[in-house]
Design a protein that fits this description.
The complex is a heterodimer of chains A (about 190) and B (about 250). In chain A, about 85% of the residues lie in helices and about 0% in strands. Chain A has 3 helices and no strands. In chain A, helix 2 packs antiparallel against helix 3. The longest helix of chain A has about 130 residues. Chain B has about 250 residues and is mostly helical. Chain B contains 7 helices and 2 strands. The radius of gyration of chain B is 22 Å and the shape is globular. In chain B, strands 1-2 form a two-stranded antiparallel ribbon. Classes of the chains: A mainly alpha (about 190), B mainly alpha (about 250). Chains A and B meet through helix 1 and helix 2 of A and strand 1, strand 2, helix 1, helix 2 and helix 3 of B.
């Protein structure tokens, strides 16, 4: 690499002053090869320093912060989803409970209605039987009373006929003929 | 009044570090601005918090991170993330030193060809060494494109090889020339304002409004260029690294 002050063996400062003089004398600074070594060394030092800072400290830190946020958001979303699932499950359980309670209530209602009906039916039946028994008894009583009354009526009618005949004719009629006449009229 | 648009590129040694052979190694104004860039990046990346809801500084740090990461993923794939620290360092170093260099009276590190050549060669040798280490001789299949008829293959291969070895040249000169030309143009237009004013008096100051407006517009453009050239440098690095990672394409 050619150097403008390569020949100068004196102190470095002196060499630089020479080189600077060269710049101001119309040289184009980016093409001043005497400055290349200094710039390359500085670039190497500072770029390596930057690389180490970036790779060991900066990127892990910022990347970690971004990742932590991402994880937090995902965790929160998962938590929200879990809670939503839970509430949906609770709602479903509630609805199931409600439906079963409703059907149970219906079953209980049906059962009690049936039981009440059966009981009422049975009561009605016994009552009817009782009534029928009483009715039959009453009819029997009526019939016997009637028979008795009818037989009494025949006796009374025969007596009355005998008395009437006695009053009208003064003759006591024969009991047998009176009875026969009463029977005939009773039949007629 | 003498206006020297080249003066801003002067390398001024601040103190001597030592000697390598007969080269004097000095800590120069360029070294100082490299240090400034490294310091700004370190402060930005390390002093920003790690809060769940980021503040301003932390947002800038995270946006830089995501920006470079997504650039690598989209151009070199997930495997390219191996080179994340390298590309992040390159992008941030160039971007920050360019943006610092736009401030008047400062020095622009990347306006010196030797710096951009150094960075471009770093990328070139990283690609070459990693490519050969990972793929062996298959790496050189990047010089043989698919579907090219046999009779023009030698010509295509020659062009491919030539373009591969010219990569560091274009890679470095693009950045260097952009920064150099931008700063010279800014200096020239800004110099017009002062020149008109000092040579023509009141009329000159009024007439200086036009170059002043141009300077402002150029300044805005240069801010864009400062960022854009850093991005271009980083994305080209990704594309070159993609060749080393996936030589089949």
């Amino acid at each position: 690499m050619a150097e403008s002050h390569g020949g100068a063996k004196g102190p470095a400062a002196g060499a630089h002053t020479e080189a600077d003089g060269g710049h101001h004398g119309g040289g184009f600074p980016p093409f001043e090869s005497s400055t290349f070594a200094s710039q390359l060394v500085s670039l190497a030092i500072f770029f390596v320093l930057l690389y180490v800072i970036v790779s060991k400290l900066a990127l892990p830190k910022v990347g970690g912060a971004i990742e932590a946020r991402q994880n937090k958001i995902e965790g929160d979303l998962a938590e929200a989803q879990k809670l939503k699932d839970q509430s949906e499950a609770a709602l479903k359980a509630y609805e199931g409970e409600l439906a079963s309670a409703r059907s149970r209530a219906q079953a209980i209602g049906n059962e009690s209605r049936d039981k009440a009906n059966a009981q009422a039916e049975a009561e009605r039946k016994t009552l009817e039987e009782q009534l029928a028994a009483k009715l039959a008894e009453a009819e029997k009583t009526i019939a016997s009373t009637r028979t008795t009354a009818m037989s009494n009526v025949r006796g009374i009618a025969a007596d009355a006929a005998g008395q009437i005949v006695q009053q009208l004719t003064g003759v006591v009629p024969d009991a047998a003929s009176v009875n026969a006449a009463v029977d005939a009229s009773l039949k007629g | 009044m003498k206006i020297d648009p080249i003066h801003q590129f002067n390398i001024e040694p601040l103190f001597t570090l030592g000697h390598i052979g007969n080269h004097t190694i000095a800590f120069t104004n360029s070294s100082l601005y490299m240090l400034v860039a490294v310091a700004i990046i370190s402060i930005l990346m390390l002093a920003s918090g790690t809060q769940l809801v980021p503040g301003r500084l932390q947002s800038v740090a995270e946006i830089s991170y995501e920006f470079v990461a997504s650039t690598i993923r989209s151009t070199a794939g997930a495997e390219g993330m191996k080179f994340f620290p390298l590309i992040f360092s390159l992008f941030m170093f160039i971007c920050v030193s360019n943006l610092v260099g736009i401030i008047p009276y400062t020095f622009t590190v990347s306006s010196h060809l030797i710096v951009t050549v150094g960075l471009a060669l770093l990328v070139f040798f990283t690609v070459l060494i990693y490519g050969v280490a990972k793929n062996g001789l298959k790496f050189f299949s990047i010089f043989v494109p698919h579907g090219v008829p046999g009779y023009i293959l030698p010509l295509v291969m020659f062009i491919e090889i030539l373009s591969f070895f010219l990569r560091p040249v274009s890679h470095s000169i693009r950045l260097f020339a952009n920064m150099l030309a931008g700063h010279i143009a800014l200096k020239v237009f800004a110099g017009f304002v002062a020149m008109l004013g000092f040579s023509l008096g009141a009329i000159g100051w009024v007439g200086g409004v036009l170059p002043l407006a141009l300077t402002v517009a150029l300044y805005a453009l240069e801010i864009l260029v400062a960022f854009l050239q850093a991005y271009v440098f980083a994305i080209l690095t990704c594309i070159y690294l993609n060749d080393a990672i996936h030589p089949g394409h």
